[in-house]
Amino acid sequence: MLSKLYNQVVTFEPINELELIYLPLFKSNIYSPTELLREGLTLLKLARYDDIMLQKIAALMLLNANKIVVGEELDKIWDEVCNMKLKIVEYAENKGIEKGYESVTLKMLKKGKPISEISEFTGFSDFKVKSIATQYDLEVRDDIPAFVGGSRNVKPKDVGVKTLNGFQSKVQPT
Predict the structure, then answer these.
(1) Which string of b and e fits 52-71 if b means at least 16 CB within 10 Å?
(2) How much is the pTM?
(3) Do residues 147 and 161 lie in contact, with contact meaning Cβ atoms separated by under 8 Å?
(4) Tens of pLDDT along 63-101?
(5) 122-to-41, 85, 146 alpha-carbon distances in Å
(6) Residue 12 gets which letter from DSSP?
């Protein structure tokens, strides 16, 4: 199968994209799935595809090889794919970063942090923070206006009680 694909590329014959996409899944006595994936990516670079088709085929090849190629082998292949400057790589990285921020948002929501603080740390809009809270059925703590002393962290029920030499007195917020 591999030699057939190489011959098609060298002689400028059309390639059956499905054969290329499923190349890592073919049983071979000579090549491992990792080697087949690597060779398939090399063929893909040699074939004269436009950027969009190249990205689609590379993405499908990686998806098919997902369960077969693991660990350091996958890291090396990922580096090769990154060198191809595929938009799919950038997209995947951005999705990973977004998932990380969603995880941070979820933890902050569970700790009762206000929306403004969560937005500041994650870069998410208030709407995005609220939608994550809704998705996990969590209450959202809207920002609390500044009270006496200008502290935003003071809870409303704590406002108005001031201790002076052991005596408590009511202080009205301004």
Answers:
(1) eebbebbbbbbebbeeebee
(2) 0.47
(3) no
(4) 888 778 777 887 777 777 766 666 666 777 788 888 999
(5) 36, 27, 23
(6) T
